[in-house]
Design a protein that fits this description.
Length: 602
């Protein structure tokens, strides 16, 4: 029943978005048979067609090798994005995972999420110990106390079901040859069925019994971070997806899958990366609006086709401000890349005094340009610092999502989660941790970015730093009136010396006190979690970071932090290899969506 309802809702959604955007109609797979898992059935082509496609692939591989050789001379300079940089040769980034495989069948059947199904939003507000509103329209049963969810009536191993045919046509119109360099038209392909990834909801132990104080109110909400893989970037970098069956790569297959996955996750806030602008305007935005979401979008600068989007449920949250962040600084030799960020201030409709800051970004990919990554991150943190400061001196709760193109425990990750990075002796190729043997050997300069940028080593705008160093206007006035001319000159000299010392101190800092929702290793064997996997790599680069609630003395202005209630589990490299890596017939991006649930008390 659940699957029939979901299939019906997905078809209805695509029909509505097609009417609004003019492009989503007719893309959905055929209805699923009763009792089957979500997915598609792909038929194997005739023998001759398979040989023809193989020959085309060999020609494409030869062209990729030639392009790789031609780009070898420019490795150190590096490209401006993940897709540009990956055209250059670099070592494979396969991780070595140890530890025994988790025994099959050790988890209860009801505790699994097949095909990436997650916990819905709509947690509602609660006052005192009572709660209002349990779950959304995601078709999942949710226990609001334990936050353990399950797919109704579905056993975890049923995802091996065969699926009905998916009608796809690639290349030119009917009867016309495909464009040069592409595979021949593919219809009714059959492949070995790939099972869905099994992910489960994990309630955070420390969240048990977390209730708002007497007389206070709590707002529960869920957040997704998801790099959905721009179609244009996928096609420009086909060598990353040679492991994929060609039928799972066209946008006509991927769009319905992505929309169905977003609908299943049923989050209150979505932070999406690699959102292609034409797909956003014509298909994704109309479809999400039909689901009750409001959208904000920032395209990458220049000719890049994609950008970042923040989408939120309009019935639960209202938009206070949307603030795009561009990392491109004209005339700056370091900040010459097209990456962007987006920061929004949201207000729960249940309480007009509460504010939640949500930031989303996609940092530069190039593993050998850690200096660029750090400068981009500093700009984003400075903007978050500015916008999170409330008029009463306190700070709003912060959720920071994105594809940071940096691994856990890398120097850049340490800066995010520890608030400090000493970069003495650190090479630019070691900042992100993406390469086992970094090729960028040049050491980070000091300062990393030009002072003309207006961002300090504390990742704050210079104007903000000056304002925060001052106390109240009355106190400043009194202090100035008691100073002599000699005192003023001495203070100015000391301030200039301190500023110069800070500028040349090889240390970056920020005051946001961010914490990751994931621990980055799997239990019980400690294997690394993976958020992205394709032909070249299987690592974690995606994060949901947040400001936890801290105990602040009543005499000091504090901040409104968040309690982490739970998260959707991740998987390891072994589990992804078992489903033919990413993307596949069920999971239509080379990244996995992250999902977390928080409580804001006020």
């Amino acid at each position: 029943m659940f699957l029939r309802q979901l299939s019906s809702r997905g078809s209805s959604l695509l029909s509505r978005s097609g009417a609004a955007g003019g492009a989503a109609r007719g893309l959905q797979p055929e209805p699923l048979p009763r009792g089957s898992a979500l997915g598609v059935h792909l038929r194997r082509p005739a023998h001759g067609a398979f040989k023809q496609r193989t020959s085309s692939q060999e020609e494409e591989e030869h062209r990729d090798e030639e392009r790789t050789k031609q780009g070898a001379a420019t490795q150190e300079a590096g490209g401006g994005s993940r897709k540009e940089a990956e055209r250059r040769p670099r070592p494979n980034h396969h991780l070595k995972h140890g530890g025994p495989e988790e025994p099959r069948g050790t988890r209860p059947a009801g505790d699994f999420f097949s095909c990436g199904v997650g916990v819905g939003g709509g947690g509602g507000a609660s006052r005192g110990s009572g709660r209002q509103g349990a779950g959304g329209a995601g078709g999942l049963q949710v226990d609001s106390h334990t936050h353990t969810s399950w797919c109704a009536g579905q056993e975890p191993r049923r995802s091996r079901t065969h699926f009905p045919p998916l009608h796809l046509q690639r290349g030119g119109a009917a009867g016309e040859p495909p464009p040069a360099g592409t595979s021949p038209p593919v219809t009714h392909l059959e492949a070995q069925p790939v099972q869905c990834l099994q992910r489960r909801w994990e309630a955070v132990a420390s969240s048990a019994g977390v209730e708002p104080a007497e007389g206070s109110t709590a707002f529960d909400f869920s957040v997704v971070s998801y790099n959905i893989l721009s179609q244009e970037l996928l096609e420009d970098n086909a060598y990353l997806y040679r492991h994929c069956h060609p039928a799972v790569l066209p946008w006509s297959h991927r769009l319905p899958n992505l929309l169905a996955e977003i609908q299943r996750l049923d989050a209150d806030i979505l932070c999406l990366q690699e959102v292609q602008e034409d797909h956003y305007l014509n298909q994704l935005k109309p479809a999400l609006q039909a689901l009750g979401y409001q959208c904000a979008y920032k395209k990458r600068t220049g000719s890049k086709p994609d950008g970042c989007a923040i989408v939120f449920r309009a019935s639960r949250l209202s938009l206070l401000s949307s603030n795009p962040v561009e990392f491109l600084v004209p005339g700056d030799a370091l900040l010459d890349r097209d990456n962007v960020g987006l920061v929004v201030l949201l207000r729960p409709r249940s309480d007009p005094s509460a504010v939640i800051l949500v930031a989303n970004t996609h940092l530069l990919y190039n593993p050998r340009r850690g200096d660029v990554k750090l400068a981009q991150l500093a700009i984003l943190l400075a903007e978050i610092d500015r916008l999170s400061r409330l008029p009463d001196g306190s700070t709003s709760a912060v959720v920071l999502c994105g594809d940071f193109n940096s691994t856990p425990w890398s120097p850049l990750y340490s800066l995010l989660t520890e608030g400090c990075l000493d970069y003495r002796g650190l090479s630019i190729g070691s900042v992100s941790g993406q390469e086992v043997s970094p090729r960028g050997h040049r050491l980070l300069s000091c300062p990393i970015w030009s002072p003309s940028l207006g961002v300090t080593q504390r990742c704050r705008y210079q104007s903000q730093s000056a304002e925060s160093s001052c106390s109240s206007p009355t106190a400043v006035e009194g202090a100035i009136s008691s100073l002599t001319v000699e005192d003023v000159a001495s203070a100015a000299a000391a301030a200039a010396a301190a500023a110069a010392a800070a500028l040349h101190r090889k240390q970056l800092e920020h005051d946001l006190k961010l914490q990751s929702t994931y621990q980055h290793h799997l239990m019980p064997d400690g294997r690394p979690e993976v958020t992205t996997c394709h032909s070249r790599t299987a690592i974690t680069v995606d994060y949901i970071l947040y400001t936890p609630e801290l105990d602040t003395p009543a005499s000091l202005p504090g901040g409104r932090g968040l309690h982490l209630l739970g998260k959707l589990s991740l998987v390891g490299q072994q589990e992804l290899q078992e489903v033919a890596r990413l993307p596949n017939q069920h999971h239509s991006s080379d990244h996995l969506p992250l999902l977390a649930r928080f409580r804001l008390s006020y």
